[in-house]
Design a protein that fits this description.
Helix content: 40-55%
Largest sheet: 3 strands, mixed
Strand content: 5-15%
Structural class: mainly alpha
Order of helices and strands: HEEEHHHHH
Number of helices: 6
Distance between the termini: 23 Å
Length: 173
């Protein structure tokens, strides 16, 4: 099974001009990194302390904003945040890579257990299936985001980024 080269897919979108991103060092932000939808900018608090997980998450937010949700992502923020946080876990599970899911930190044992089972199932199936969307909504609702993040989910949210990057194309007869 060929590994999903997600970084390449995303970087190709950026190189093609479909997604435009500016980078800015800004030591006044309160988090290590954040995507500013108004300016299409990934702001980095301290460049020397940036890790690949944080950068990847902000790149996913840029994709969410510019390719899928536009400014609507600002009103469905908890779902958007959860989708961005689990993106790398799903990629690593599908590619049979080891990982420690950041999204389970400071969560209940019930949430963490259900999350692991779900991610393992996606990894075994080698794709995000339509049936996974229901579990996504259930887990997004149960997920307790970091302090200061919105806590309301949209019951009709469809994780378009996960659908687009991890679902196998339908073959028509």
């Amino acid at each position: 099974m060929e590994k999903i080269l997600l970084a390449k897919k995303i970087l190709d979108k950026i190189k093609s001009g479909d997604i435009k991103i500016h980078f800015k060092s800004d030591n006044t932000i309160q988090v290590p990194a954040q995507y500013n939808a108004a300016t299409n900018t990934i702001q980095i608090r301290f460049v020397n302390y940036m890790n690949i997980h944080q950068l990847s998450e902000e790149l996913i937010h840029a994709v969410q904003h510019q390719q899928f949700y536009g400014n609507a992502m600002l009103t469905i923020f908890k779902d958007v945040e959860f989708e961005a946080k689990i993106f790398l876990d799903i990629a690593r599970a599908i590619n049979d890579e080891e990982f420690l899911p950041v999204v389970t930190m400071n969560q209940s044992n019930d949430f963490s257990g259900e999350y692991w089972k779900w991610i393992e199932k996606i990894g075994k199936n080698k794709m995000f299936m339509s049936t996974d969307e229901k579990k996504f909504r259930e887990l997004s609702k149960l997920w307790v985001p970091p302090a200061g993040y919105p806590t309301t989910c949209d019951p009709n949210y469809t994780p378009q980024v996960l659908r687009n990057y991890f679902r196998k194309p339908t073959v028509k007869p």
